Amino acid sequence: MTTIDRDASGPEDLQKLHNDLAEVWANPAGLKALTIVNHTTLGLRFMVTGMAFFLIGGILAMLIRTQIATPDQGFLTPEIYSQVTTMHGTVMMFLFAIPILEGLAIYMIPKMIGARDLVCPRLTALGYWCYLFGGIILSFSMVLEMAPDSGWFMYTPLSSSEYSPGLGSDFWLLGITFVEISALSAGVELVVSILRTRTQGMALHKMPLFAWYILAMALMIVVGFPPLILGSILLELERAVGMPFFDIAGGGDPVLWQHLFWLFGHPEVYIIFLPAAGIVSTLIPVFAGRPIVGYGWVVFAITVMGFISFGLWVHHMFTVGIPQLAQAFFSAASMLVAIPTGIQIFVWLATLWLGKPKMKLPMLWIVGFLVIFVCGGLTGVMLALVPFNWQVHDTHFVVAHMHYVLVGGMLFPLMAGLYYWLPLFSGRMPSETIGKWGFWLVFIGFNATFLIMHWTGLLGMPRRVYTYDTGLGWDVFNLLSSIGGFVMSAGFAMVLIDIALHFRYGKPAKTNPWNADTLEWANKLPPTPYNFVSLPPIETRHPLWEHPKLPQEMEEGKHGLASADHGRREMWGTDPLTGKVREVIHVPSNSWWPLFAAMALAIVCISLLLRWYPLAGLGAAVAVVFLLRWSWENGAHPKAAPNANVTPGDPPLHSRTMDGPGVWAMTTAMIANGSFFLSYLFGWFYLWTISPEWRMPETSPLSLIALVIAGFALLGGAALMEKSVRGLRKQQERGLAFNFYGAALLGGIQFALILWVMVRANLAVTETSHDAILMVGLYYALLHSALGAVLSLLQGLRVGYRYVGLHAPFEPVVVAYFWRYNVVVFWILVVALAVLPRVIGG
C-alpha cells in the first residue's frame, strides 16, 4: 500500500469529521472516567501516580538522612529505620522510576510515531490499575508499621520466615509481583505499538530516536522482569508453604535468590537509563538547532547496551564467593558497557558543538545530567574492578554511585523532558525563573549529598546501619550530606510549586513553541484524545522541520483515515521495517473489564497476604472470568468493530487479516513467558549442580510414560490448530469448529495426565527443594495446558457466533502461536525434569 491521502470537501465536511472523531474517541466523565483506555489519559495517570510515590520516597529519604546526620541518633528506632531504608529503595525503584518512565512512553510514543493510540489500550489500562493497587498495598504496610525491613533487594535468608517472621516480606513479594504485571503489560504494549503502528512511510531508520530507546527499554522489560517474578513466587512459596528453595538444609541455596534478583536488577538500571537517554537525544538536537550527529551510531549503541546489560548481573555478587574466572569475565563485561555509553555521550557533545545551543530551562537539566552521569559512570568503572569492589562493597560508596547513576542518569533528564513537554500537557509555557531556582537547588543539594557519601564510604561507613559512634571520622561528612539532602528537597519542592502554578498562570504556548522536529508537536496544545485528525505520510526523520505546514494539513483532514462515521477507533497498521501500510487497526474503546480484572487480582493479592487461601482461589477464578469476558469483545464482535466497511482505497481491517497486531502481542508475551521459563530452568540446574545439600532420589517420582502421552496429546491439539490456520489461509473453513473443539479436548487430556502425574508423584515439597521445584514445573505445565484448552474452546464457540471464520480469520493464528509455545516448552520440561535425572542421576 502506498501513500494514502484525501481532502475534506469543504468546511461542513471538516467540521463533521472533527465531530465524528470527538464522539468516537471521547473520554467519559464522572464514574465512567474509570473506564478510559486512551493512552493520553493513562500516560498522565501513570506519571501523576509516579510523582505521588516519588514524594513518599523523598520523605523516607529525608527520614534516613535525619537519622544518620549525627552520631548516636535516636530519631528512629532500629526496626523503623530498617523499614524506612527498605521502603525508600523499593518505592523509588519499583513505584517511581519504572512506572513514570513507562507513563511518559505511553503518553508520547503514539504522538511521536503518528498513531492515535497504543495498539492494546485495554492492556495499558489493566497495567495502570495493577500498578496503582500494588503500590497502595505495598505502601499500606508502612501505615501498619509492618513494612519489609530486609533491604529493597530482599536477600535471603534475611527475608525468609526465620529472620523476618512478620508480614513485611510478604507485603514486598506480593506487592512487587502485582506491580511487575503492570510493567510487563506496558512492555508488551510498547513493543507492538512501535513496531506495527508507525504512520505510513516511517521506516525503522526514520523513526525518532526516542522511539528506538523506548523499544529497547520495552524489550528489556519483557526479558528482564520475569526472573524477579519467578524469584518472588518461589520466596513467597517458601514463606507461606515451607518449600525450601533458598534453605540450604532442604537442598536450596540463598545465593539463587541473588542470581534471580540481579538477572532483573542490573538490566533494570539500563531500563531506567535508556528512556532518559532518549529524552536527551530528543532535546539536544532541538536546542542545538540541528539534526543529531551519528543517528546510526546511537541506534547501534542502544542495541549493544541492551544486549550487554543482561551479562552483568554477577558484578553485584563479587563478594559471595564466585569463582575467579567468573569474576574476571563479569568485571570485563562491566567495563565493556562503557563503550556504548561513551558513544552516546560523544554524539551529544558533538551535536552541541556543531550546533548553536540555546540554554533554555530544559537544557539546563540536560547539562546537569551530563556532569552527574559522567561522574557516576567513572565510579561504575571503579566498582567493576574486583579488588576495589571488595573494599567498598556494602558501603556508602556504592550508595553514592547508585544515586549518581540513577538520579543523574534518570531524574535529571526526566525533569528536562517534563519542562520540554509541559506545553504539550497544558498548553502553557514553563517559568524560566522559578524553574532555574529549582534546578540549582537540586543540582547543588544532590552533589553535596552524594559526592560526600563517596568519601564516607571510602572511610568504611557501611550502608543500612541506623547509627554509629562518634570519633570514627564520619560525623561532619554525614551532617553535610544531610544538609545537602534537605537543600535538594527544597529544590524539588520549588519544581513542584512551579508546575502547580504553571497550569494556572503559565504563559499560553504557541504551536510548536520550541521549533521541534518530531510529530508530537503537530498536535493541538493540549492534544485531543485522538491526537491527529488525519495520519500523514512521513519520509524524513525531521517532519516538522522539512514540512512546517504539516500540522495544518493534518488538522484539515488532508491525509489518511480522515473519517470516523463508522464508529471505530482507527489507525494504520504498518510494516515493522518499511512503514508501508498493511491494514487498518481498530482498537477497543473504553471498558470496565481492565478495572474489574485488576480489582479481582488485588483481592487475590490481599488474600494471599492474609493466608485466606479459599478467598484467593475464588478471586483468581473471578479474575479469569473477567479476563475471558474481556477477550470475548474482540475481533469481529460488534462492540469491537461495529461494521467491517472501510473507505475505498484503504486496506482491510486487521481482524479480517491473518497478521494483525495481536499476533505480535502474543509473540512478545511468549518472549516474556519464555524468560520466566528459562529462569525456572536456571534455578533447577543451579540447585542441581551447586547446592551443597541437594538431594535427588535414585528413581524419578515422575511418570515418564504419562508425561510422554500428555506431550503427544499436546502435539495433537497443536496439529489441529495448525490445520485450522492452514485451511483459513487457503480460504477453507470446513470443520473449523470441530478442530477447535478437538484441540480443546486434547488440551483437557493433557491437563488430566499432568494432574495425575502430580498426584501419583506424592512429592515432599516441604522437605526437599528437589520435590518443591518439580511441583512448580508441573504447575507451570498444568496452567498452560488449561489455558490452551480454554482458548481453543472459546474459538469453537466464536465460530458459532460468526466472530471467527473466513471473514475474520485473525484469532486462530494468535491461539496457534500459544499452542506452538506450549509444545516447545512442555517437551523441554519433560527432558529436564524426567529424562535427564534418569540418564545422569543426582
TrEMBL record:
Entry EC number(s): 7.1.1.9
Origin: domain of life: Bacteria
CDD domains named among the record's database cross-references: Ubiquinol_Oxidase_I
PROSITE patterns found in the cross-reference section: COX1, COX1_CUB, COX3
InterPro entries according to UniProt: Cyt_c_oxase-like_su1_dom, Cyt_c_oxase-like_su1_sf, Cyt_C_Oxase_1, Cyt_c_Oxase_su1_BS, Cyt_c_oxidase-like_su3, Cyt_c_oxidase_su1_bac, Cyt_c_oxidase_su3-like_sf
Pfam families from the UniProt entry: COX1
Sequence ranges assigned to domain Cytochrome oxidase subunit I profile in this UniProt record: 24-539
Compartments where found: Cell membrane
Heme-copper oxidase subunit III family profile domain segment(s): 581-838
Record has Electron transport as a keyword: yes
Pathway note: Energy metabolism; oxidative phosphorylation
Membrane topology annotation: Multi-pass membrane protein
Keywords tagged on the record: Cell membrane, Copper, Electron transport, Heme, Iron, Membrane, Metal-binding, Respiratory chain, Translocase, Transmembrane, Transmembrane helix, Transport
Reactions catalysed: 4 Fe(II)-[cytochrome c] + O2 + 8 H(+)(in) = 4 Fe(III)-[cytochrome c] + 2 H2O + 4 H(+)(out)
Ranges annotated as spanning the membrane: 42-64, 84-107, 128-147, 171-197, 209-235, 269-288, 295-316, 328-352, 364-390, 402-422, 434-456, 476-501, 615-632, 663-688, 700-720, 740-758, 778-797, 818-840
Record-stated family: Belongs to the heme-copper respiratory oxidase family.
Protein's name according to its UniProt entry: cytochrome-c oxidase
Species of provenance: Halomonas citrativorans
